TrEMBL record:
Alphabetic keyword roster: Membrane, Methylation, Transmembrane, Transmembrane helix
Domain of life: Bacteria
Lineage: Bacteria, Pseudomonadati, Thermodesulfobacteriota, Desulfuromonadia, Desulfuromonadales
KW Amino-acid biosynthesis (keyword) present: no
Membrane topology according to the record: Single-pass membrane protein
Species of the source: Desulfuromusa kysingii
NCBIfam families reported in the protein's UniProt record: IV_pilin_GFxxxE
Entry GO terms, CC: membrane; type II protein secretion system complex
GO biological process: protein secretion by the type II secretion system
Location relative to the cell: Membrane
TM region(s), chain numbering: 12-35
Protein name, per record: General secretion pathway protein H
Length: 172
């Protein structure tokens, strides 16, 4: 009669070299994919202001098309704020739901200037950009500046409402 001793095994425990190689390869692959996604962390108030402005423009562009009503974005270049409005059928302007009355740029961020195709360049006062329900927004280039003199350029595509952001001051 054979008696076995509990706990003894002739198999070696641990991982093979092939298993370790596969795991290290997968970890490297995931880090190549995931780490660039964190590149926007810490990019600061300037980029945050540009993203928020871009989101607002695209949202209003879509709302104008969905509601079949003209929308407007009104920039106050002197106060570094912007607000949105919808043009009702009676000709009155009303605030757009889901968007705050006045959106303030981040602290230490300001509008440097703004160029609207066919209307010129503005550096102070109020500037209104129309967003038509037919799917068109006035082509515009917005320059933002931080307290440490870094600049960003936000370019609005008139056919899609998509905003593209560039580092530095660019004219288009």
């Amino acid at each position: 009669m054979l008696i076995s001793i509990a706990g003894s095994s002739k198999k070696a425990s641990g991982f093979t070299l092939l298993e370790l190689t596969i795991v290290l390869f997968l970890m490297g692959l995931f880090s190549v994919i995931v780490i660039p996604q964190f590149s926007h962390i810490g990019e600061g108030e300037l980029h945050h202001s540009a993203r928020r402005l871009s989101w607002t423009i695209k949202y209003l562009f879509n709302e104008a098309a969905l509601s079949s009503q003209e929308h407007r974005i009104i920039y106050n270049l002197s106060d570094n704020t912007y607000r949105s409005a919808v043009l009702e059928t009676d000709g009155n302007l009303f605030s757009v739901e889901r968007i705050p009355e006045d959106i303030q740029l981040e602290q230490n961020i300001e509008f440097m200037d703004m160029t609207i195709s066919g209307r010129g360049t503005f550096s102070q006062g109020e500037v209104t950009v129309r967003i038509l329900p037919s799917g068109w927004i006035e082509a515009s280039t917005i320059h933002l500046r931080s307290a440490d003199k870094q600049t960003l350029t936000v370019v609005v595509n008139p056919l899609t409402g998509h905003c593209e952001t560039f580092d530095g001051y660019r004219e288009f």
